[in-house]
Amino acid sequence: MNTSNHTPENITTTYRDAPARTVTAGGVTYAYRELGPKGGIPVVFFVHLAATLDNWDPRIIDPIAKNHHVIAFDNRGVGASTGTVPDSIEAMADDAVTFINALGFDKVDIFSFSLGGMIAQDLVVKHPELVRKLILAGTGPAGGRNIDKVAGTTYYDTLRATLTRSDPKEFLFFNRNATGKRAAKAFVKRLEERTADRDASIKVKAFQTQLKAIKKWGRATPVDLSTITQPTLIANGDNDRMVPSVLSGDLHHRIKGSELIIYPDSGHGGIFQNHDKFVPAVLEFLAH
Q1: Of 36, 24, 15, 35, the residue nearest 80 (C-alpha)
Q2: I want to staple 52 with a disulfide (CB 3.0 to 4.6 A). Which of 28, 79, 127, 153 is the partner?
Q3: What is the pLDDT of residue 10?
Q4: Which residues form the AB hydrolase-1 domain (predicted)?
C-alpha cells in the first residue's frame, strides 16, 4: 500500500482501493469514492461525458490524495447513482451541490474535466461561497464556439473506435500520431487498474441526455464569468477536438487572475497524457 510516514495505515491512498460508498439526498442515492487523509478542504472531482467512477486516471488522483481528502462521485442517473440524468448542465450543478451538502461540506476545492468543468462553472457562479479553488480542464464556457458540435465529434469518433475495436477515448482524448497513440494506450490501461467493485457503465440513454445538455450549453447565452473570484487553474492540450482549445483561452480571459496551461502535441486528454507535469502544477495550485 502506498503510504507516506504521515499517513495512518487505515487511510486509502490509491484510487484502485478506494471503497465504493453511497449517500442519499433529494431522493437520489449518489455513488462515490473517497481517499486520502480527512480534514481540511476536500477536493471533489467532477467527471466527464459518459464517464463513471472508473474513468479517473489513478496517476492524477493518487498523488493528489497523498495530502488531500479526495472525493469522486457519479452524477445522477450515471453508473451506480440512482435517478435520471438531467438534460441541462444547470440541473447537474444543482445535483452536485446536493451531493456536497449531503456529505456535510460547506467549502470544497473542485477538480473538473470536460462536462464536469461546465457543471463546475455553473455551480461556482450560483454558489460562490461553496468553492475555495477551481480547476477547469478540457472545458469551455456556456455559449462557447463549437461546443454544440461535441455530439457530432463524439458519435464520429465512437464509430471510428468501434471499427478498430478501440476505446472511443483513444480517438476523442488523444492525437492520432505516434505520441498520442502511445499515451492513449497507456491511459486506457491505467483505467483498468481497479479490478474489484467496478462501477456500472453509463447507459446509452443517459449518455444521449448528457450530449443534449452539452448542446444546450453550447447554444446558451454566455454567462458573466467575471464574478468568479476564486483562484482558478485552466488546462488543456493544444489540439482539443471535443471542446476546442481556444475555449480554454476564452475562459482564462474571462476569469480574472486565472492560470492557463496548454500542453503541446496533445488533445482533449492533455492532462492525462502529461500527468507527470500536470500533477505538480495542481499540487502547487492547491497548496497556496
Answers
A1: 24
A2: 79
A3: 73
A4: 43-273
pLDDT tens digits along 173-192? 999 999 999 999 999 999 99
Please, which pLDDT band fits residue 62 given cuts at 50, 70 and 90? very high
How far apart (Å, rounded) are the C-alpha atoms in residues 42 and 131?
10
Cell 461546443 belongs to 147
Judged against a pLDDT cut of 70, whether residue 118 lies above it is answered with yes
- Angle (deg, nearest 10), helices 204-219 and 89-102: 110
The pLDDT of 74-103, averaged and rounded, is 98
How far are the Cα atoms of 8, 120, 158, 216 from residue 111, in angstroms, in the given order? 25, 8, 26, 23
Architecture of the domain whose range is 15-287: 3-Layer(aba) Sandwich (3.40)
Q: Which three cell numbers stand for residue 133?
A: 479553488
User: Taking each helix axis from N to C terminus, what angle separates 89-102 and 115-126, rounded to the nearest 10 degrees?
Assistant: 70
